[in-house]
Amino acid sequence: MMRATPNAAPPAPGPALLVIDMQNTLVAMAYRASATVAAIAGLQERARAAGAPVVFAQQRDDELEPGTEGWRIVPELAPAPGETVVPKAAPDSFLDTELDAALSARGVTELVVTGFATEICVESTARQALSRGYDVVLVADGHTTSVRPGPGPYAAPEASVAHHNEIYRNLRYPGRRVRVLPAAEVDFGGRSPGDGSARAR
To answer: What GO terms are given for molecular function (predicted)?
Structure first.
């Protein structure tokens, strides 16, 4: 992680793209995997071009052992040199991690949230971001969940994604801005004082 020097000017407030758990093992079981990866890749390109941070949360547990192929972030979304990768062991990407500190050091005021899985790590992290004072953009076509093996108690993946998008369209947190945007409508803009959020085009 890059650290600010004592005499450095504080970073201008602005958005960051957060990519949650887009790892080989998880993407292999994901609903609309190729389309979701493509949507996030496009967001990465635009965020980098605008100078907005791209930050990754990477799950590690008994099934995702660090250093294994399944644990690695998919090649299409690989972090660029110098980008922050935050290891985590829980659905909440802030819990016992350096995520909040990394975002604060970069002047982040709004999180553009993407990744896997919709109703677990994406949901847990987005809610925690709001509780910690961040504005949130949930990218409607930039999060996904696992393909279900058949009829059962879980909602179908397309229903789960749609359900969470609709909840966030109607979610209200005092003092926060919560939006749901398709990837094509997220514009990171230029990071400058007084303009601290991703904007709809």
So the answer is: hydrolase activity
CA angle 191/197/201 to nearest 5° reads 95
Residue 32 lies in a domain: yes
Q: How do 199-200 and 186-187 pair as beta strands?
A: antiparallel
DSSP, residue by residue, 120-178? IIIHHHHHHHHHTT-EEEEEEEEEE-BPPSSSSSSPPHHHHHHHHHHHHHS---TT--E
| Residue 155 falls inside a structural domain | yes
Domain count of the fold of the chain: 1
Beta bridge partners of 59: 88
Q: Global pTM?
A: 0.90
* C-alpha–C-alpha distance, residues 34 and 43, integer Å: 14
d(CA 27, CA 34): 9
Q: Does residue 94 sit within a domain?
A: yes
Look at residue 114 and give its three-state secondary structure: strand
Q: For the segment 79-115, what is each residue's pLDDT rounded down to a tens digit?
A: 999 999 999 999 999 999 999 999 999 999 999 999 9
Which segments of the chain have a pLDDT < 50?
1-6, 191-197, 199-201
Cβ contacts of residue 111 below 8 Å, gap of 6+? 15, 16, 18, 103, 126, 129, 134, 135, 136, 137
